[in-house]
Design goal:
This protein folds into two domains: about 220 residues, Glycogen Phosphorylase B (Rossmann fold); about 160 residues, Rossmann fold (3-Layer(aba) Sandwich), CATH 3.40.50. The chain is about 45% helix and about 15% strand. It contains 16 helices and 14 strands. Strand 12, helix 12 and strand 13 form a beta-alpha-beta unit.
């Protein structure tokens, strides 16, 4: 930043922005919605003050402060039924359980109530909802009541919900049309949104990754592959296990994450005879991930229709090469042959062959890791993301 730009920023009036989300770090190091915390803290450097409305969780205070960012949390059901947020399976829970449906009604009402109170106290000039549902829907009410502009950002799971469930389409279109600006974290998501609502053209503005936390180390191994993600069908872990069984190289796989499919996947590994090549770590705090990325020979992302794939960015920042299906927003983070290797979606044989190719060529692993880090630094640093969003905010608020 040059002196003139810095002086202009110092002289510009400070903006106040209210974040609405159903996922946000609960404790220091929590991976849930961590990119929103990185964005909020980086926005301070752009003259933007953020306050966050997020769901309650077990043992969490109603009011908290993370890295100088105030968080107000809301209860939405009796404590034992508050299981919609922070699981990554809100839509599935609501679909299969009447209790979850009732809890969802409470969720919408409680978020609106707390956001309305905080709006009067905080006096924001703009509301920024993350995920069109439930935050974007609540955002239309909060912004409408306060006559404030609304920005809605989509991250992936919410777009899949709008695409898959016909009952969601009218609500989706309403949120899109009542948002002053719509952003997505990848070009693929922007195309999906535009396909469903042709008169809306989203701005592509990815979320940030902590460049301070994720950095290269000196513990790189030559025989370990890492997977990080929820253990469900969309993340493609079952396809990965099939690929492991077909590889020539008998390398080890570290599997980080939990989810409803865990028992089925462990049984699959038993049938394939690859149990001794797998370590199931379960869910880990974000602060534990850099060491795993730093020692991994490669990261594999076998998901289909990923909104962006921030785990790929985290691995790249740590210098690990990435192998992934050429699907969804992952093509925004991985350029085939330059910053990683891409294979046809769902092609298990191609995935196994590509992983073997990496272990045939140590120099290729090193070159892809270096190029991936340089690319990730340019596109996903918190300062870059904050600058994009601060410019958007001021463009909207200025009139």
């Amino acid at each position: 930043m040059n002196f003139a730009t810095g002086r202009a920023m110092a002289d510009a009036p400070r903006l106040r922005v209210l974040f609405l989300t159903h996922s946000y770090p609960r404790v220091p190091g929590d991976a849930a919605g961590s990119f929103l915390l990185h964005l909020a803290t980086a926005l301070r450097g752009e003259g933007v003050e953020v306050r966050v409305i997020a769901p309650a969780g077990e043992g969490l205070p109603a009011h908290d402060t993370f890295d100088g960012i105030r968080v107000d949390r809301f209860h939405y059901a009796p404590r034992r039924y508050e299981n919609l947020a922070y699981t990554g399976e809100m839509a599935q829970e609501v679909q299969r359980s009447w209790r979850a449906k009732v809890a969802l009604v409470g969720f919408l009402g409680a978020q609106f109530g707390v956001a309305t109170r905080v709006r009067r106290e905080f006096s924001p000039q703009l509301v920024h909802a993350h995920w069109w549902f439930p935050g974007g829907l609540v955002g239309t009410w909060v912004a409408g009541l306060g006559r404030l502009p609304l920005v809605t950002t989509m991250h992936g799971t919410d777009v899949r919900l709008a695409r898959a469930k016909s009952f969601a389409r009218p609500l989706f279109r309403r949120v899109m049309h009542q948002s002053r600006a719509v952003t997505t974290v990848s070009r693929w998501l922007a195309a999906e949104v535009h396909d469903m609502v042709p008169d809306v053209t989203p701005l592509v503005a990815p979320m940030p990754v902590s460049t301070a936390l994720f950095a290269p180390g000196d513990t790189r191994t030559t025989d370990r592959v890492l997977f990080v993600g929820r253990l469900n069908a969309q993340k493609g872990i079952a396809l990965l296990l099939d690929a492991v069984a077909r590889m020539r190289h008998r390398v080890h796989f570290d599997l980080v994450g939990d989810g409803s499919d865990a028992p089925v996947l462990r049984a699959q590994a038993e049938r394939l005879g690859i149990v001794d090549r797998l370590t199931w770590h379960g869910a880990l705090p974000q602060t534990a991930l850099p060491a795993l990325y730093q020692r991994a020979s490669a990261l594999v992302v076998p998901s289909i229709g990923e909104g962006l794939g921030l785990v790929a960015v985290e691995a790249q920042l740590c210098g690990a090469p990435v192998v992934a299906f050429e699907s969804g927003g992952i093509t925004d983070t991985v350029t085939h042959g330059e910053t990683g290797l891409l294979v046809p979606p769902g092609d298990v044989n191609a995935l196994a062959e590509t992983l073997d190719r990496l272990f045939d060529d140590p120099e290729l692993r090193l070159a892809l890791g270096r190029a991936g880090r340089m690319s990730a630094l340019g596109d996903f640093a918190p300062e870059s993301a904050a600058r994009r969003y601060a410019t958007l905010y001021r463009t909207i608020v200025a009139p």
